[in-house]
Amino acid sequence: MTAMIIDGKAHAAALRARVADGVAGFVAAAGRKPGLAVVLVGEDPASAVYVRTKTRMTAEAGMAGFEHRLPADTTSDDLLALVDRLNADDTVDGILVQLPLPAHIDERRVLTRIDPDKDVDGFHPVNVGRLATGLHGFVPCTPLGCLMLLRATLGELSGLEAVVVGRSNIVGKPMAQLLLQQSCTVTVAHSRTRDVAAHVRRADIVVAAVGIPHFIKGDWIKPGASVIDVGINRIAKEDGGAGLVGDVDFAGAAAVAGAITPVPGGVGPMTIACLMRNTLVAACRRVCAAEPEL
Ligand SMILES: NC(=O)C1=CN([C@@H]2O[C@H](COP(=O)(O)OP(=O)(O)OC[C@H]3O[C@@H](n4cnc5c(N)ncnc54)[C@H](OP(=O)(O)O)[C@@H]3O)[C@@H](O)[C@H]2O)C=CC1
Ligand SMILES: Nc1nc(=O)c2c([nH]1)NC[C@@H]1CN(c3ccc(C(=O)N[C@@H](CCC(=O)O)C(=O)O)cc3)C=[N+]21
């Protein structure tokens, strides 16, 4: 193995510590804690685990967490009414509606109902537009975490060839916007791309957000490239247990890459740390129109 392993867990812990410092300053100035409301509809076990982790980390950062668990048969109108209440609640600085939502709920309608200035997920079209035009808004947590890991690993990204595999609104598209903002030359590959391997072979930076275990092969990776594996795939292990693997063949890629994120312990922890960061930023903007240094 030649690649440096990018320790997402350690970077995330360091970011959460900086956020906790900022939170202490906010509490001293504003006389209250930054507040994050997390809404979970239904009983999806993976979502329940993420929501519990988010709530625990919120408390550890010194912030107030408000967990709203609604039954799977909640109507769109009931969910929209809850979003309206959270928008109007001055103790709530950030709102996150856990995805995916049950199929009968109109996801777009719910996400666009969230006050853009409380949209710590960065999914509201206003924040998508702000990111695309270079205005201050909220950047989705997963691509923001990926960018932080890349900056910590490579420093300046200007001029590098970046290939993002995946074009979802949550990961691929905002990731491409962020890399473009850093003056990378960005290619976005997806399921209709004719030869994904050929694009990946040119890349100094590979971000894999496909949702297919070990989709990116080791012999696609350019020697020395930086590989960010966003994939979280639950697979059955030989011993009968459940294992978590990424979208990259880790062993194969680590033999040629310059640096690579593991799964678990890579992008996932950074996503949650960035949510804490965005919540503190939301609180600072709402209360004192200031940007914390993070
Ligand atoms: N670590 C973290 O914090 C997070 C991890 N994830 C994980 O990241 C992965 C991606 O998530 P998400 O973006 O939401 O997933 P989506 O399913 O929304 O998007 C997957 C993307 O991969 C593309 N794709 C599918 N098959 C191929 C193929 N054969 N060749 C090239 N591209 C392909 C799709 O293309 P097309 O658009 O053409 O269909 C699509 O753009 C998942 O494993 C998810 O669990 C997600 C969010 C946060
Ligand atoms: N509105 C919304 N915002 C999200 O940001 C959001 C969402 N919905 N729905 C689901 C996806 C997925 N996601 C992850 C967060 C943390 C880990 C994480 O911490 N993973 C650990 C492992 C955790 C485990 O063992 O399951 C790791 O990679 O080390 C993973 C995935 C956020 N998402």
TrEMBL record:
Gene name of the record: folD
Domain Tetrahydrofolate dehydrogenase/cyclohydrolase NAD(P)-binding: residue ranges: 140-285
Tetrahydrofolate dehydrogenase/cyclohydrolase catalytic domain sequence ranges: 6-121
EC number: 1.5.1.5, 3.5.4.9
Highest taxon, organism lineage: Bacteria
InterPro entries linked: Aminoacid_DH-like_N_sf, NAD(P)-bd_dom_sf, THF_DH/CycHdrlase, THF_DH/CycHdrlase_cat_dom, THF_DH/CycHdrlase_CS, THF_DH/CycHdrlase_NAD-bd_dom
Keywords noted in UniProt: Amino-acid biosynthesis, Histidine biosynthesis, Hydrolase, Methionine biosynthesis, Multifunctional enzyme, NADP, One-carbon metabolism, Oxidoreductase, Purine biosynthesis
Organism of derivation: Sphingomonas oligophenolica
Biological process according to GO: L-histidine biosynthetic process; methionine biosynthetic process; purine nucleotide biosynthetic process; tetrahydrofolate interconversion
Subunit organization: Homodimer.
Protein name, entry field: Bifunctional protein FolD
Annotated family: Belongs to the tetrahydrofolate dehydrogenase/cyclohydrolase family.
HAMAP family in the record: THF_DHG_CYH
An annotated GO cellular component: cytosol
Pathway stated in the Swiss-Prot or TrEMBL entry: One-carbon metabolism; tetrahydrofolate interconversion
